[in-house]
Amino acid sequence: MSLLEQIEKDVIVAMKTKDHIKVSTLRMLKSALGNYLIQVKKDKAEDSEVLGIITKQAKQRRESVDSFEKAERKDLADKEKAELAILEAYLPKQLTEDELKTAVQNAIAISGAQGPADMGKLMKILMPAIQGKADGKRVQEAVKALLK
Q1: Cβ neighbours of residue 120 under 8 Å, at least 6 residues apart?
Q2: What is the pLDDT of residues 22-69, one digit of tens each?
Q3: d(Cα 84, Cα 65) in Å, to the nearest integer?
Q4: How many angstroms separate the CA atoms of 35 and 97, rounded?
Q5: 104/122 Cα distance (integer angstroms)
Q6: How far is CA 118 from CA 17, 21, 112, 115, 122, in A?
Q7: 6-10, 47-51, 63-67, 127-131 — which is least confidently predicted?
Q8: Which of 1.10.10.410, 3.10.450.50, 2.40.400.10, 1.50.10.20 would CATH assign to domain 97-146?
Q9: pLDDT for residue 81 is more than 90
């Protein structure tokens, strides 16, 4: 079963159980997927594309949580956290710091990157291997630390 089919089934289950937050979150996700398909002029999305959209949506929620917490809007931050938890259930298990460091070291070995100037070369190799498994900010910090 594809990731998109799983999401569609989960929407139906959430509607039956009257889980309003899950219904609205998954509907927003389906809307984002629909917009993506229109943008790239395709009828169906691959699982990797769906993962990319889910990752982007999760990142937006994390940023919103930070903004709402800074503005001391606990109610809105809690809603965003709940939506983030729903989205993260569809993402692969996140890499630990050690796993991320190992992945970056492997990519450095493959790309032959020497310093910060080679970051683009390194990221081209690294990102497809860890897509959805680590936040871009964490990856960037790990790469910078190891390329010094």
Answers
A1: none
A2: 999 999 999 999 999 999 999 888 888 898 899 899 999 999 999 999
A3: 9
A4: 34
A5: 8
A6: 51, 43, 8, 6, 6
A7: 127-131
A8: 1.10.10.410
A9: yes
What is the model's pLDDT at position 31? 95
- Domain limits, the chain: 3-88, 97-146
- What does the alpha-carbon distance between residue 114 and residue 94 come to, in Å, rounded to a whole number? 27
Q: Which long-range contacts (CB under 8 A, 24 or more apart) does 23-27 make?
A: 24/83, 25/82, 25/83, 25/86, 25/87, 26/86
Q: What tokens were used for 105?
A: 């070291």
Architecture (CATH level 2) of domain 3-88: Orthogonal Bundle (1.10)
Q: pTM, whole model, 2 decimals?
A: 0.76
- Among the listed residues 131, 112, 132, the one whose alpha carbon sits nearest the alpha carbon of residue 122: 112
Helix, strand, coil percentages in the chain from 3-state DSSP, rounded to 5: 80, 0, 20
